[in-house]
C-alpha cells in the first residue's frame, strides 16, 4: 500500500513540475530591425488623406527602417513599454485589470500623453482603417472589403531548437491564411517553458502606440504554446521586420512607481486630444508598412 501511495505522489509531483509557468514579473529588452530594399529608400511619403467634412487628416508614420530597442516591464496586471527612436521617446502604460492604456510621448521638447479604454481604442482603430481604405483610390472595392476579414492562424511545431538570450527555444511555423485563401508562413522561435501574464509578445514596428496598433507586430503569436523570442516577418513594399528578445530578467524586484505617470506630462483623454485639432481635421498615427 505504501508503494502505491509513493508512486501516485511521485506522478502528481512530476505532472505539477512540468506545467508551463506564467511569469508575472519581468523586464524584457527587445530589438526590432526593419530592412528595406535599396530601391525603397527614395519612396515619397504618403499624402494627407481627406477626413470628414472635407478637412485633412495628418498622418504620422512610425516603424521606419533601422534598429529600435524597447524595454517592457511587467508586474502583475501592469505593463510598461519604453521605446526611444529618432523621433522621440514613447512610454506605454497598460493596466490589464482595468483595460486601460496610457500613451506618453516626448517629442520636440513636448511631454504629452493620452489615455483610453479598450473600447475607445478599438473605435479609433476602425476609424483609422476606414480612412486608409478611403485614401486608396487605385484599389478595387472588393480588395478593401477583404482586408476587414481577419485571417486565421495555424502553428506547426518542428524539432529544431537553439538558445536565444540564454533561453532554450523551439522553432515553429506560424501559418496565416488570408480571407482569399492565400497563405503566409513565418518561422518563430519560442520558449515553451513559460508565458508572460498579459503580454503576448514584445517589440514590433509600432513602438506600442496603444492596443489599436497591435497589428504592428505579427498576428497569431497568442497561438504559440510559449513565449516568442525571435521571428522575422514580411512587411509592405518588400521590407522585412526582425524582432528578437535580447535580454529577459525575472528575478529583479520592480517598484510600483515604475508605472506612475510623471508629473511633468500633460495628460488628456484620447477623444479630447483628437478633437484639439479642430472640426474636420484630425491626427492619426500610422505604422509604416
Structure in words:
- This protein is an alpha+beta fold and 289 residues long.
- The strands form three sheets. It has a twelve-stranded mixed β-sheet with strand order 10-11-12-14-15-2-5-6-7-8-9-16. A three-stranded mixed β-sheet has the order 3-4-17, with helices on one face.
- A hairpin with a 2-residue loop joins strand 10 and strand 11.
- The longest helix is centred in the first third of the chain and has 17 residues.
- The protein starts with a helix and ends with a strand.
Concise structural overview:
Helices cover 16% and strands 45% of the residues. It has 4 helices and 17 strands.
Portion of residues in beta strands equals 35-45%
- Spatial sequence of strands, sheet with the most strands: 10-11-12-14-15-2-5-6-7-8-9-16
- Structural class by helix and strand composition: alpha+beta
Mean pLDDT: 79
- Looking at how many chains there are and whether they match, the oligomeric state comes to single chain
Uncertain spans, ≥5 residues at pLDDT below 50? 1-17, 41-63, 208-215, 277-289
- Major beta sheet, specifics? 12 strands, mixed
Number of strands: 17
Task: Provide the helix percentage.
Answer: 10-25%
Radius of gyration in whole Å, from Cα?
Answer: 21 Å
Please tally the helical runs, counting DSSP H or I stretches of 4 or more residues.
4
Roughly how many Å apart are the termini?
66 Å
Shape assignment: globular
Succession of helices and strands: HEEEEEEEEEHHEEEEEEEHE
Amino acid at each position: 500500500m505504501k508503494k502505491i501511495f509513493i508512486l501516485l505522489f511521485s506522478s502528481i509531483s512530476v505532472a505539477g513540475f512540468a506545467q508551463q509557468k506564467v511569469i508575472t514579473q519581468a523586464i524584457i529588452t527587445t530589438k526590432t530591425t526593419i530592412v528595406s530594399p535599396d530601391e525603397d529608400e527614395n519612396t515619397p511619403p504618403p499624402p494627407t488623406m481627406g477626413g470628414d467634412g472635407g478637412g485633412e487628416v495628418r498622418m504620422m508614420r512610425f516603424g521606419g527602417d533601422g534598429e529600435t530597442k524597447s524595454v517592457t516591464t511587467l508586474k502583475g496586471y501592469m505593463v510598461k513599454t519604453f521605446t526611444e527612436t529618432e523621433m522621440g521617446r514613447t512610454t506605454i502604460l497598460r493596466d490589464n485589470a482595468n483595460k486601460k492604456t496610457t500613451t506618453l510621448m516626448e517629442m520636440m521638447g513636448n511631454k504629452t500623453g493620452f489615455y483610453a479604454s479598450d473600447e475607445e481604442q478599438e473605435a479609433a482603430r476602425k476609424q483609422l482603417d476606414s480612412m486608409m481604405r478611403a485614401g486608396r483610390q487605385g484599389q478595387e472595392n472588393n480588395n478593401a472589403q477583404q482586408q476587414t476579414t481577419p485571417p486565421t492562424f495555424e502553428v506547426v511545431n518542428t524539432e529544431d531548437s537553439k538558445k536565444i538570450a540564454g533561453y532554450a527555444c523551439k522553432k515553429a511555423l506560424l501559418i496565416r491564411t488570408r480571407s482569399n485563401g492565400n497563405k503566409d508562413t513565418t518561422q518563430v522561435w519560442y520558449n515553451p517553458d513559460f508565458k508572460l501574464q498579459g503580454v503576448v509578445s514584445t517589440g514590433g514596428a509600432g513602438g506600442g502606440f496603444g492596443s489599436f496598433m497591435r497589428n504592428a507586430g505579427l498576428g497569431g503569436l497568442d497561438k504559440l504554446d510559449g513565449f516568442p523570442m525571435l521571428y522575422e516577418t514580411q512587411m509592405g513594399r518588400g521590407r522585412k521586420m526582425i524582432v528578437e528578445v535580447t535580454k529577459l530578467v525575472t528575478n529583479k524586484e520592480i517598484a510600483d512607481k515604475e508605472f506612475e505617470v510623471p508629473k511633468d506630462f500633460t495628460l488628456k483623454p484620447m477623444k479630447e486630444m483628437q478633437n484639439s485639432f479642430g472640426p474636420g481635421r484630425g491626427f492619426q498615427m500610422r505604422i509604416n508598412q
